[in-house]
From TrEMBL:
Organism expressing this protein natively: Paracoccus fontiphilus
NCBIfam families, per database record: Ku_bact
Assembly: Homodimer. Interacts with LigD.
Annotated region described as Disordered, given as residue ranges: 227-246
Family named by the database record: Belongs to the prokaryotic Ku family.
Protein name: Non-homologous end joining protein Ku
Lineage top rank: taxon: Bacteria
Amino acid sequence: MAPRTFWKGYLKLSLVTCPVTLMPATTEGEKVRFHTLNARTGNRVVSQYVDAETGRPVREEDEVKGYERGENDYVMLEDEEIEAVALESTRTIDIDMFVPANSIAWVWYDRPHFLMPADEVGQEAFAVIRDAMEVTGTVGISRVVMYRRERAVMLKPRDKGIVLWTLRYGDEVRDDADYFDALGTEKPEAKLMTLVRKLIDESTTPWDAGMVDDPVQARLKDIIAAKKKGKKRAARPKPRAAAPEDNVIDIMTALKKSIQAEGRRSSR
């Protein structure tokens, strides 16, 4: 069954507009999720907000957002005040600028989404915008309300569609110069580089989604399946024994041993 549409709206570039749909490119639907239960009764446990001072439950209609300006001193904001600063249109992706595709560092990328034309009528306008970005090597920048917040987004052509990335806010990204500028600038020896490149060549393989399988999720599903059948809990696997350390401190020797080990693994 096709997933339910996550977002519907319009893609707009100047006077060119087309209806589009948006779907998250990633999902956590297959993740094992747990509820908190009362071990004595087997009933679910529900959470509830309580007043930090009185300990009494707070009614939903009495909840309000507060910004702390001092110890136990808050500026209260109503939902209407917060919503008033959002974009006027929450359903239009209006591309107002373009930047070179390689000018946005990966650290700004947040969540990917698949953007597609919503009907046949809008396919031509969608294709024109997509192909023009591909030819010029640019990506579009816009703003849209997603996940209940106004987000800056990047539109990047990919195959027949467009990938829309939400971008991180400016105060979320740290400057790498604060961390990397203090590192040394010396170049490694040519011999060491040759060995490392050889090690990389022997370890290079085509990408496969199986490389990022989650073994913990698989084990949890096995345990749950066993419990459904009334079987006893599976024995916890013993931790792998740590490889004995040989106190190798010479980089050249370590690399040569690594290449030998990689060669034996490849031959197998």
